[in-house]
Specification:
Length: 409
């Protein structure tokens, strides 16, 4: 059994926003007991105070780890985003502080895809409109504006893990599938790639968006793009709130250019269930609004809890960074009877020579070295045949361009 330089009972873990209990259970199973869990996202002032003495933090989509917040994270070694995306974290600042960020890019893929398919069917059948009238005592039994999805065209913008799942499910329902992605992707089934966004918009009965939030995708669907869509088509956004200009969507609904809309993500979202929600599409017919729950199934949240927690534990226990979104990646097993040191530094010439010198001048044999770099930082794991105490960390931290150094065991 390895003896860790910092006992696991001393490693403070903070899990925010009601992270699934699978994360808590896995931490306990691996010896982590100093854990604080909250069901909501703290405000910035509270978050800054909490993060000062935390070693590991787990968040979902509402907590924002900005540069201002991260600069107060004196002890933080890793961040876990219990979500597909990591937009809520300033990853550049985290990297500069030697903090790898992990997420779960695939665990809720199926959940989002199923919601998109369900919304497609409901909107094609005008169910939101019929449902609203029925609740208000109006009986609108009619086939007008009600269509099957079979034989219709599904247009997918962003053919990644979620988009490709939507593709498979759509084709199983008898739909024709076209997709557009800025990166060339292998078609699944009979899906057909389009060369431009305009092309897929013009041929689709339903357009569903599955793109990340970037400068390139910001407001990518506006008045111009809606005008290029088929008359009385459907728009679904289960990606990011800033990729759609919703004022233009409202106009498209009023004019009849859009038959229906589903939105699961919004430019501004409440930080808790106690805050009011106001949105321009509220009250409009044949519109489905859901509170960012595309990936919020119990199955998905359990899988996300396990996947992200495993990555955080692997980094804390053995230094593995496989799956990090902002860090050079190293995957390795622990070595019995060896000591392990981590050194994170700016990618500058001569640093490794000084790191090796700290051990060689003590006559210590370095059993193995694992080094990975990117243009900004270098990350090295050093296994030594030694029984040093943590005073050696002082020397490692004093090396020029050092960001962070740790002795694991």
């Amino acid at each position: 059994m390895k003896k860790y330089s910092l006992g696991k009972e001393q490693i403070k873990v903070l899990l925010l926003e009601g992270v699934h209990e699978s994360a808590l259970n896995l931490l306990h199973e691996n010896g982590y007991t100093n854990i604080e869990c909250t069901s909501s996202a703290p405000d910035k002032i509270e978050l800054i105070e909490k993060i000062k003495d935390v070693h590991m933090i787990g968040i979902r989509s509402r907590t924002e780890l900005t540069k201002d917040v991260l600069q107060h994270a004196n002890k933080l070694i890793t961040i876990g985003c219990f979500s597909i995306g990591t937009n809520q974290v300033d990853k550049k600042t985290a990297k500069s502080l030697g903090i790898p960020v992990f997420n779960a890019p695939f665990s809720n893929t199926r959940s989002v895809a199923e919601l998109v398919i369900a919304e497609s069917i409901m909107l094609m059948r005008s169910v939101p409109k019929l449902n609203s009238n029925a609740h208000n005592g109006k009986w609108l039994k009619t086939a007008k504006d009600s269509h099957e999805v079979r034989g219709k065209t599904m247009g997918i913008v962003g053919y990644g893990h979620i988009g490709s799942q939507v593709s498979i499910l759509s084709e199983a329902l008898g739909m024709k599938v076209y997709y557009y992605d800025i990166i060339k992707k292998l078609s699944l089934g009979n899906a057909i790639p389009c060369k431009t966004l305009e092309e897929v918009l013009g041929i689709s009965d339903i357009v569903t968006l599955h793109v990340p939030s970037t400068e390139l995708t910001k407001d990518m669907i506006g008045a111009k793009e809606i005008s290029l869509m088929k008359k009385a088509s459907i728009l679904i956004n289960a990606s990011r709130g800033d990729v759609v200009e919703y004022n233009a969507v409202a106009e498209g609904l009023k004019s009849g250019q859009l038959h229906g809309v589903a939105a699961d993500v919004f430019p501004e979202e409440p930080t808790s269930n106690n805050e009011p929600f106001k949105f321009i599409l509220q009250g409009m017919e044949n519109v489905i609004l859901t509170p960012h729950v595309g990936g919020s199934t119990l199955e998905a949240q359990e899988n996300i809890g396990i996947e992200v927690t495993e990555k955080m534990i692997q980094y804390s226990d053995i230094g593995a960074t496989l799956g990090s979104v902002n860090f050079p990646q190293i995957s390795l097993a622990p070595h019995k009877d060896l000591q392990r040191f981590l050194h994170i530094h700016k990618n500058q010439p001569g640093v490794m020579r000084e790191v090796n010198g700290v051990f060689s001048k003590r006559g210590i044999n370095i059993a193995s070295v694992y080094l990975q770099t990117d243009p900004e930082i270098g990350y090295v794991i050093i296994d030594t045949e030694s029984q040093l105490d943590d005073t050696i960390l002082k020397e490692l931290k004093e090396i020029n361009h050092t960001i962070k150094a740790r002795m694991l065991y």
